[in-house]
Amino acid sequence: MIHRLIHNICMLALISLIAGCSMAIDSFSNNLNKAVMSNNDSQTVMQGLPAYLILLDGFIESDPEDEDLLFASAKLMNAYAGLIGTQIALMEDEDEFQIQILRAQQKKLTDKALKRSIKAICLYDDDYCGLTNIKYAEFKKRLKDFDEDDIGILYNLGTAWVSWLQMNTDDWNATAQLPQIKLIMETVIQLDESWQHAGAHMYMGVLNSILPASLGGKPETGKKHFESAIKLTDGKNLMAKVLYAEYYARLIFNKKLHEELITEILTAKDSQNNLTLLNTLARQKARALKASAKEYF
Hints:
Blueprint: H1 2-13, H2 26-37, H3 42-62, H4 67-89, H5 96-124, H6 136-143, H7 151-166, H8 172-175, H9 178-192, H10 195-208, H11 219-232, H12 238-249, H13 255-267, H14 276-296
Helix pairs in contact: 1-4, 1-7, 3-4, 4-5, 4-7, 5-7, 6-9, 7-9, 9-10, 10-11, 11-12, 12-13, 12-14, 13-14
């Protein structure tokens, strides 16, 4: 359960690469983001991104207080951790040693991404310093100060935070921060629910559908978020559908809905846009769900 959740949260992290870019390297970063998200070969992307990560590290060494560089670096690290997660999901059990190495790399990336996101949002506005270390009541109060102009850096913090949390699920102090992460996503939805292809709705769909209602989950709330993500993207974001199938349809054993969603994903037409990489990964996941459906249901 934990490893499956980590994998899907990491796939969602790829969405954080789509919007915004560093002002300091505006054209280069923007073009790179577009090239990555419009690529249908995840292995090629994985092989190429580390060089850019190191390049950004070099820029940050020269100017460690540049919020835009920190912002861009955190997004890219989070996205790369997501790609590692997809690689792990496709590996055989006998590759356990290699899987452990990759998970250790994921953890390092998510740790660093969160630290840079925290620093970036503090440099962006010192009223937002220490957001991850305050009590929920004060956290909720500070989030009321965010508006549409702040949505990019707020969403970046939320995606980095949830990815970090999923690599630290054995730490109860980390797990206790989940309400703050949910509140970030709820705030993003209030400000602009279509932001980054309705990414906040997908996060909320997953986070509310982890457990059945009998154990404290809120699958019907999760369902509404998945449906909102699909509607807002005109069904073009296939990741919303595959997560809907895995988390909601499987949780309530709705075989019919599961089959409908998987069929829609696998029969969807290819389109060259900034959802190409995400949709390629969604199709890979859909094929795996289809293969295991008979045994599951």
